[in-house]
Amino acid sequence: MTSEADDTIAAIASPMTPAPRGIVRLSGHDCIDVLCRMKVLDTDEASGRRPFRSSKTLSLGEPLGAIEFDVMVWPTQRSYTGQPSAELHLIGSAPLLQSSLDAAIRAGARAARPGEFTMRSFLAGRLDLTQAEAVLGVIEAEDRGTLDQALSQLAGNLSRPLQAARSTLLDLLADVEAGLDFVDEDIEFISDEALIQRLDELRSLLLQTRSQLSDRGGASSTIRVVLRGLPNAGKSRLLNVLSRTESAIVTDQAGTTRDLVTVESSWGGHSFQLIDTAGLESREESDPEAPISQEAQLQAAEAARGADVHVWCIDATGGDDFESLKGPNAVLAEAKRSAQLICVATKRDLMPTDWNGESMRADLAVSSESGAGVDSLIERLVQFAEQRDAGETGSVIGTAARCQDSLAAAIEHLAQAIQWTEQAAGHELVAAEMRLAVEAIGEVTGQVYTDDILDRVFGRFCIGK
Predict the structure, then answer these.
(1) Residues 68-113 pLDDT 10s
(2) Domain TrmE-type G, which positions (predicted)?
(3) Bridge partners of 274?
(4) Has 278 been labeled as part of a binding site?
(5) Are residues 320 and 400 in the same domain?
(6) Whether residue 114 sits in one domain with residue 20
């Protein structure tokens, strides 16, 4: 992908579907001049140096006439793209958006290419390459896990350690090459032992990063499954049956579980972390066990916030638990919003004959005593894991695929540099391998890039991003 970096580009930055608001985005060195030719800005506004927002009117000719809109202007390089930029916020009507875009093009802008706004941000140094890919990940995210991963990458969780590793490697390379310059004076800037140790630390960091990227590329990361429900709903017994352990204490007395009980399990090639929590309850402040209960509830709520799946256990034998699921349930609704929710009717072997899952909004029924229905629950969890893996596509996975070879090369060059140092083969060979490792790391974050790499990264964006 090539880009005339000085051109002012324009694009519709919202889907071409009916929406309350739409945006036409512009960016480029003569962006302000284009807005003046469109008669969006006057002379005083064009000379300003501070970002501003203003309400304007734009004439689109017949039959659309004049429309009112808001314009947001960033007149200097302190914008997303690192260039003067503007956004026209209009009514979300496809004809109005297209006519406004046409007006910008007539005034001297050109249509933006896919991903060109974000590519300009990368070229201006406002984003590195992994963060640019994360922008696409945020746009394409279809579930909470994928969004969180993309936002984390956008915040620099991948690029920061790699940039630090590259900087450290450059410092070590400077010491090695300085020693080569003063070889006749027998001046040692860094000992071989220290060099080997530092290179091995960097190699370990890159191996860890590569392993993390492999997880993003398709290997199943651990899925947190939290068992929730009222006291004595059968959570602990179900955890023991699922994990085939006796990890949780099981009694007929409600409220036995206070602390979190965590067990690791694996089904269908996926890793799961099962977490048993205290039953939902509230006690009067005068109750001597109120402080313990309150702490248990806080622990359960914290575990729930970090869960991928809530297995909501319902006592199918009736009573308060049975009735609570017939009507609105605020905690249950919150669980459904924050994670995948599976409602399980427990104690299936003790069910009343008139029980039906619809009346309790249960997805399936299980018996921890006989094992009935447990395989169906495991199947639901495996289906969730497979759907999550299939959904984690787009830029964050694209980052993993793009970076694997570069990180593997950097690791190999560092290993070779360590070997040359141990064998006293000469610091010229060591420095050569270190330079190649620096270049390979730079390919990941974008300090080193080619047009082919930019094509692969930004060609996946939609126009206007």
Answers:
(1) 889 999 999 989 889 999 999 988 788 888 888 999 999 999 998 8
(2) 222-386
(3) 225, 263
(4) yes
(5) no
(6) yes
